[in-house]
């Protein structure tokens, strides 16, 4: 199934409930949750065949829903794929790709065009609470923050967790900016990049953690909470804030759209102390098992709030695994290749759907 088709299904469901609402005050609008991972491989979780990574919560989504084995992202890298998720349009129709590379880098002058209507804005039109928690990567200037594109609030990082980093005096972002010879420059620093990726320290990456909220008067409250973001605890923080948003929405008797966009398992890999060294597949397995924990926390909250009969959840990834990082990357088996290619391993992603009915 293609990404555009699932967005169409969601919009049809919203419209049907909106029409029903005109007929009776008893109609309850459904809630929608998208859990989005970064560079997760097609074969990284139990339902898709990895015996060494324990993912009981992701497995539960299969038991209560469906595992889609023929689902394609709209691109094999972050920015264009994420733009397609929110707009339902191919990247070529929105211009969502970098100036000299396929993704946006810190300081990019571009972002998600305001002429494009996002699924969050559609939800807002139907009086939904809309919250995003996690990686954005559709423009790091304030004018392009998620709160300018239909989200009531956002807590997360503006781009990939490996950006805002200097190697031997060379800023990684500048490597991909003309007139640099990007391929040659990256070839020169790659051994150092790889070494530090395999032994990461959160202080090596000056990626900010930002909170943004749309005010009642239409203004915005934008706060940089941390720089660098504490990536060891970032999966837990996204999860905690997502659950807080769900509770507040239900308390306010508002249907909600939650977009939980994990920074992981994009390199550099970080996990909390509770999960470090616990899996049978090294740090990569630790990260996936913590994401599975996050899924479990969301499912537990849905049940505790008594909205399980009225909530739809989609779990998927922006693209395939970044195979050049070896055991710090996932697996797309039996598919060929991975991220940044148009082979199946780069475009075909693990996708699970769960909901009532």
UniProtKB/TrEMBL annotation:
Residues 1-20 form the signal peptide. Keywords: Calcium, Hydrolase, Metal-binding, Signal. One of its GO terms (molecular function) is arylsulfatase activity. InterPro entries: Alkaline_phosphatase_core_sf, Sulfatase, Sulfatase_CS, Sulfatase_N. Residues 30-355 form the Sulfatase N-terminal domain. The keyword Hydrolase applies. Belongs to the sulfatase family. This is Arylsulfatase.
